[in-house]
Specification:
single chain; 1 helix
Length: 100
Protein backbone atom coordinates (compact mmCIF):
# COMPACT_ATOMS: atom_id res chain seq x y z
CA UNK A 1 0.00 0.00 0.00
CA UNK A 2 2.83 2.37 0.86
CA UNK A 3 4.70 1.35 -2.26
CA UNK A 4 1.55 2.04 -4.27
CA UNK A 5 1.22 5.49 -2.69
CA UNK A 6 4.86 6.18 -3.49
CA UNK A 7 4.28 4.99 -7.05
CA UNK A 8 1.22 7.26 -7.41
CA UNK A 9 3.12 10.18 -5.93
CA UNK A 10 5.92 9.56 -8.43
CA UNK A 11 3.42 9.40 -11.30
CA UNK A 12 1.69 12.56 -10.08
CA UNK A 13 5.05 14.29 -9.77
CA UNK A 14 5.94 13.17 -13.28
CA UNK A 15 2.62 14.51 -14.64
CA UNK A 16 3.13 17.73 -12.69
CA UNK A 17 6.64 18.11 -14.12
CA UNK A 18 5.31 17.44 -17.60
CA UNK A 19 2.50 19.98 -17.12
CA UNK A 20 4.99 22.53 -15.76
CA UNK A 21 7.23 21.96 -18.76
CA UNK A 22 4.28 22.38 -21.13
CA UNK A 23 3.20 25.52 -19.27
CA UNK A 24 6.72 26.95 -19.54
CA UNK A 25 6.72 26.18 -23.26
CA UNK A 26 3.34 27.89 -23.74
CA UNK A 27 4.55 30.86 -21.69
CA UNK A 28 7.66 31.15 -23.88
CA UNK A 29 5.47 31.04 -27.02
CA UNK A 30 3.17 33.73 -25.58
CA UNK A 31 6.16 35.94 -24.72
CA UNK A 32 7.57 35.48 -28.22
CA UNK A 33 4.18 36.27 -29.78
CA UNK A 34 3.88 39.40 -27.61
CA UNK A 35 7.37 40.51 -28.62
CA UNK A 36 6.55 39.95 -32.29
CA UNK A 37 3.31 41.91 -31.91
CA UNK A 38 5.19 44.71 -30.16
CA UNK A 39 7.77 44.83 -32.96
CA UNK A 40 5.00 44.92 -35.55
CA UNK A 41 3.31 47.74 -33.65
CA UNK A 42 6.55 49.68 -33.44
CA UNK A 43 7.15 49.14 -37.15
CA UNK A 44 3.61 50.32 -37.90
CA UNK A 45 4.12 53.42 -35.74
CA UNK A 46 7.44 54.03 -37.49
CA UNK A 47 5.77 53.63 -40.85
CA UNK A 48 3.00 56.04 -39.87
CA UNK A 49 5.56 58.52 -38.58
CA UNK A 50 7.45 58.22 -41.87
CA UNK A 51 4.19 58.76 -43.78
CA UNK A 52 3.47 61.87 -41.71
CA UNK A 53 6.99 63.19 -42.31
CA UNK A 54 6.64 62.54 -46.05
CA UNK A 55 3.26 64.31 -46.11
CA UNK A 56 4.75 67.27 -44.21
CA UNK A 57 7.62 67.47 -46.69
CA UNK A 58 5.18 67.31 -49.61
CA UNK A 59 3.03 70.08 -48.10
CA UNK A 60 6.13 72.19 -47.42
CA UNK A 61 7.24 71.69 -51.03
CA UNK A 62 3.79 72.68 -52.29
CA UNK A 63 3.85 75.81 -50.13
CA UNK A 64 7.29 76.76 -51.43
CA UNK A 65 6.19 76.10 -54.98
CA UNK A 66 3.03 78.15 -54.39
CA UNK A 67 5.03 81.01 -52.87
CA UNK A 68 7.41 80.98 -55.84
CA UNK A 69 4.45 81.03 -58.22
CA UNK A 70 2.91 83.98 -56.34
CA UNK A 71 6.21 85.89 -56.52
CA UNK A 72 6.43 85.17 -60.24
CA UNK A 73 2.87 86.37 -60.82
CA UNK A 74 3.46 89.53 -58.76
CA UNK A 75 6.52 90.25 -60.87
CA UNK A 76 4.52 89.74 -64.08
CA UNK A 77 1.76 92.06 -62.79
CA UNK A 78 4.35 94.72 -61.87
CA UNK A 79 5.86 94.47 -65.37
CA UNK A 80 2.39 94.76 -66.94
CA UNK A 81 1.65 97.82 -64.78
CA UNK A 82 4.94 99.42 -65.87
CA UNK A 83 4.20 98.68 -69.53
CA UNK A 84 0.68 100.05 -69.19
CA UNK A 85 1.94 103.21 -67.46
CA UNK A 86 4.57 103.61 -70.16
CA UNK A 87 1.99 103.16 -72.92
CA UNK A 88 -0.37 105.60 -71.18
CA UNK A 89 2.43 108.18 -70.94
CA UNK A 90 3.26 107.69 -74.63
CA UNK A 91 -0.44 108.13 -75.51
CA UNK A 92 -0.61 111.35 -73.46
CA UNK A 93 2.44 112.72 -75.30
CA UNK A 94 0.96 111.74 -78.65
CA UNK A 95 -2.37 113.37 -77.73
CA UNK A 96 -0.65 116.54 -76.51
CA UNK A 97 1.39 116.69 -79.72
CA UNK A 98 -1.73 116.20 -81.82
CA UNK A 99 -3.55 118.99 -79.94
CA UNK A 100 -0.64 121.41 -80.26
Amino acid sequence: STSRAVERAGTAESHLGSAASELASERAKAIAAAATAEQALRAERGSRAADVRAADEFIRALRLEGAAEVRKLKLEVAQMEEETASELEASRHALAAAEA
